[in-house]
Structure formats: structure tokens, C-alpha cells
Amino acid sequence: xRKLTLxxxxxxxxxxxxxxxxxxxxxxxxxxxxxxxxxxxVDAVGPGGKTGKAQAMSILSLVAMGDASIDAAxxxxxxSKIATVDHKFTNILGVxxxxxxxxxxx
Length: 106
Known about the structure:
By secondary structure, the chain is an alpha+beta fold.
């Protein structure tokens, strides 16, 4: 019975981690990926003087909360002119996931 329970838990984790998020690469056990955004409203080329961050998180893909929008990242540091937009996706066993938006600018 114990082996059957363990197998069921592993199957649930595998299925749940298949939907880990919108990152270009995903790891079923662990992922920590940084990549640029395809946001078209960039005002400059190269990083700006300030860096604002905004984050959303999910637990077991059952509960998700936070604001990882570009607007929230700009408000974090008072950025009005966006230079770059990047994202970071972290996944640990599909149990804990974060999505962070990082905006640089002035």
C-alpha cells in the first residue's frame, strides 16, 4: 500500500509539473531561468539606472498570488522610461513557483 501511495504522489507531481509556467525552458524537478521579454514598449537600448521588480508566486499550482506586471515593476522604483524588461521563472518540484518581472530604466 505504501508503494502504491508513493507512486500516486509521483504521478501527480509529474502531471502537475507539466504545466509549470510560461518559461521557454522548463525543468520538472527544478528550474531557475532568466530571459528577455518581448515587450515592445522599450524606450532605450541597454539597461537603465534603476531596476524595479515585481513577482507572483504559486503553491502546488492550486494557489497563485501576486502582481508580476511590467507596471508593478515600474512602480517599484518609480521608473517612467523603460530601458529593458526581463523575466525570471523558478520552479521547485511543481510545488513552489515564482514569476518575476525585472524592468530597468529611469
